[in-house]
Design a protein that fits this description.
The protein is an alpha+beta fold. It is about 45% helix and about 15% strand. The protein is built from 21 helices and 21 strands. Strand 10 and strand 11 (about 275-285) form a beta hairpin. The longest helix is centred in the last third of the chain and has 35 residues, at about 540-575. The chain is flat and about 90 Å long. It starts with a strand and ends with a helix. About 30% of the residues are buried.
Amino acid sequence: MSGERGPRGTDPAALREQARGLGHEPGVYLFRDAAGEVLYVGKAKSLRSRVASYFGAEARRAVKLVRLVREIDSIETFPVRSEAEALLLEWNLIREFGPRFNIQLRDDKSYPYIKVTITEPFPRIFVTRRLKDDGARYLGPFTDVGAMRRALRTIKKMYTVRSCHYRMPAELPPRPCLDYHIGRCRAPCAGLQSEADYRSMIDEILEILGGRTGAVRRSVERRMAGAAEALDYERAGELRDVLRGLDQLESRQAAIDPRGGSHDVIGFARQPAGGAVCGIVLRVREGRLVGRRIHYLANVGEEPDEAVLGALVKGYYLRQPDDVPSELLVPEPFDERDLVEEYLSGVAKHRFRIRVPARGPKLELTRAASRNAAHVLERDRLERGDEAESDVEASGPSPAGVRLAEALALDAPARDLVCFDVSTLAGRESVGSCVWLRDGRPHKDEYRRFRIRDSEEGRTDDYAMMQEIVSRYFDRRVREGGALPDLVVVDGGRGQLSAARQAMDGAGVSDLPTVALAKREEEVFRPGTAIPLRLPRTDPGLHWLQRARDEAHRFALRYNRTLRRRRALRSRLSEIPGVGPEREQRLLERFGSLDLIRRATPAQLARTPGIGHTTATSILAALHEEDPARGAAS
C-alpha cells in the first residue's frame, strides 16, 4: 500500500484541490494536524468522493465535522484493492494512532482472560490480565472471576494440560515431574504423549471454553463406548469423568435461549449529553449464557446510535476474528453491515450473519443486553460518585474525590487512597493488609499483605499490629522511592489512627493526610480533632472510604483464613505416625485438603510418591478415628 502526503497548510481550497486529485479506488484516509498528529482515520469506497465530501457545504452543518476540518493540515491516503481490505486497515490504524475524532473501543481492563498458547507445540492454559499480540488465543474477558476459575479447575481435572513453563520441544526436563506421577499430566516432555494427541485435547478444551459442549460430549461418549468395548476400562473411566465435568460446567451456565440457539448478542447504552457509552456482548452457546464482555466507547460525542453500534461491532470482531459466531443479534441496523458480514465470513470460513430481530426471544435478548449495559453505566456512576460523567476515561478529578477533599479539608482532590486493616483470631495467624484504590476502583498491583511479626501467640494488640504493618509498608515505600497516596485510611477508631500516625512519623511521611473509619456508626476520625466527622450516608466520599475499608477487610480476612487452614491441615497430618514433613508436603500437593485425603481410598493415597499401602491405611484409620461420621460417609 502506498501513502501520499499533501501540501502543508490549513487552506481549505488547497485541501479541496488535493481531494479532487485522488483516485476513485477504495482505501483509507488519514487527516493530520499541523503537528503531524492523526486526527481521524476513515474508510472509503471511493477516496476522491469521500475525502472531497469533508470540504463541501454539507460537512459544515455538523459541529464535530466543522471542528475536524478546521484542524486538518494534511491528508494521507492508502489505496487498497477492496472495501474489505480497507475495513481491516481502518481498524488497525485507529488502534495504532487512537485519533481523537474516531470512536474508540476500550475494554474494562479489570477483568481477566484465559490464555491458550496455541503457537506452542504443546500449548499451556492459564489466566492473565494482559492482552498481547503474540498469536495466542485469549478467551474473555470474564466478569465473574470466581466462575471462570471454577470452570478452569474443572477443565484441568478433566484434561491433563501441562502446567510447566518449558519451551517444548527445545527445552525438556530430565524426567517427568510430580504432575505425571499423580495423574495430572501425561508427560509429553518425556515422549509419553504425542503432539497430535495433545493438540486434540486442546481443541476440545477450546470448544468447551467457547461454550460449544454438544459436539465434545458426543465425541467423548463415542470414545467411551469404544474403550468399554475394547475392555479398556481405565480409559473408559477417564472419559466418564470428562462427561461428569461437562455436566458440572453446564449446570452452572444460565439458560436464556429456550430454542437452544448459538449466537452473540450486542446491546449498548449511553448517558445523555455526549456522556459515557457502554457496549455489552453476550455470548450464547446452545441456549446457555457462557460469557459477557464489557466495552466502553470513547470520543463518541453526539454521534448517532447507528455509528456507535457500527464502531462497537467492528472494533470487537476485527480485533479477534478467531472468535466469530455464525450469527450476531443487534438492536438496530448500522452502516456497512453487509461489508462486515462479508469480511468476517471470509475470515471465519463460515457464514456470518448480522440480524436485527423484530419479535420473539431474540428481540428480548437484544433488549436484555442493552439493559445490562445501562446497569453497568449506572454502577460506574454510583461507584465514582458522579452525577454525570462526560467520559469514562476523563483524566480530571472525580467528583467523589473532590467532595471527600472538601469534607476532610485536604489541599487537593483525593484520587489515590490506601487502607490498612488487621485480621486475627485469638492472636493466631495475625495478618495485615493494605489495599490501594484509584478513583474509587481497586488498583490490585499495589495490594500488600503482611504476617504480623511482633505479636505473641494467643495475645491480641490491635494498636501494635496496626503500627507494625503501617511502619513496614511506608518504610519500604520510602526506601524504594514508590508513589505515595493522597489519603491514608485505617480500619478502626482513634486508637488505630494514633498507632498509624506514630508509624508514619517514624517513616517520615507524617505529611500524608490520614483518617480512621469506625464500623459501627461510620464515624471518621481525624488527627488533632476530638469530635469525629459524620458524613451523610449518601455522600459519595463516604462511599469511597467504605469501599476501601471493606476491601482491606476482605483481603486481610482471606489471607488469615488461608494461613489458619494450612496450619490446621499440617498439624493434623504431622500427628499421624509415619507422616513426616516430606510425606505431608506430597499429600498436600496432591489432594489440597484434609477432607479430600479423608475421602480417598487406600489405593488412591498409595499413588502418592513415598506413601505405601500400609502407610495409606494407617493415615485413613487415624483420620476416620478422628471423625467417624465422615469416615462412614466416605
